User: Which sequence fits this backbone?
């Protein structure tokens, strides 16, 4: 069953409070995005399957758990999704990384695709699509459609801030994926920005304000 989970861990909520502040500068913003992504990875990987294997400790033989089955790939939506990758890699160092380049046309708010490079075996991996912001849902929905067109089935989406409008769209267009959200906000404004939100995530990560 696909899962939709809004985070409730105090450390995640505290850090989200700091990145929302307009006076938080790029260095701190970038570090916190990485830390939040790392903490969210715990929740988002809870369903990964384990298997028993026999090993030998210095004392005796015993059975331990190890991850079973499919390997992981992280697919950030450029640009802002890049800010989440290092934090996730701290938790899953062997993950491969794909990239999907999309930007939102400021007038139509429709996603425009400009890049797609994925691990060759991505159809056999658990894929974590990541983007700090789920606003109208156009970018993430398009990214997930691109992956499905390449045969990917096991898709999870992780964002730090979501608008209800984007969440509804993603649930409708991709009812089969897991969705992990740091904070679910009130609404979109007339320019398609999340309210209260945190402004433009890409600009704040890369200092291009
Ligand atoms: C932002 C954000 C998402 C998208 C969300 O990217 O990082 O990708 O907007 O909006 P949506 O849900 O309405 O599609 P942006 O288009 O600003 O590009 P950037 O990451 O290159 O700054
Ligand atoms: N993209 C952002 O970076 N922020 C928003 O609030 C909406 C889309």
Assistant:
């Amino acid at each position: 069953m696909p899962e939709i989970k809004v985070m409730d861990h105090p450390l995640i909520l505290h850090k989200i409070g700091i990145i929302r502040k307009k006076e938080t500068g790029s260095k701190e913003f970038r570090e916190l995005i990485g830390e939040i992504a790392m903490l969210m990875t715990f929740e988002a990987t809870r369903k990964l399957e384990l298997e028993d294997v026999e090993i030998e400790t210095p004392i005796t033989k015993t059975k331990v758990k190890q991850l079973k089955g499919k390997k992981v790939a992280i697919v950030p939506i450029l640009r802002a999704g890049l800010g989440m990758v290092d934090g996730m890699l701290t938790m899953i160092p062997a993950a491969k990384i794909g990239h999907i380049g999309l930007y939102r046309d400021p007038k139509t708010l429709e996603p425009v695709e400009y890049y797609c490079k994925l691990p060759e075996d991505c159809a056999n991996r658990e894929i974590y699509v990541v983007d700090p912001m789920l606003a109208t849902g156009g970018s993430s929905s398009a990214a997930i459609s691109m992956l499905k067109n390449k045969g990917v089935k096991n898709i999870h989406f992780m964002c730090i801030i979501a608008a209800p409008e984007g969440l509804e769209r993603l649930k409708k267009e991709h009812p089969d994926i897991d969705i992990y959200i740091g904070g679910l906000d009130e609404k979109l404004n007339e320019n398609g920005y999340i309210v209260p939100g945190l402004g433009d995530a890409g600009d704040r990560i890369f200092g291009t304000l």
Remarks:
- The two ends are 40 Å apart (CA to CA).
- The chain has a mean pLDDT of 96.
- The chain has one domain: 4-206.
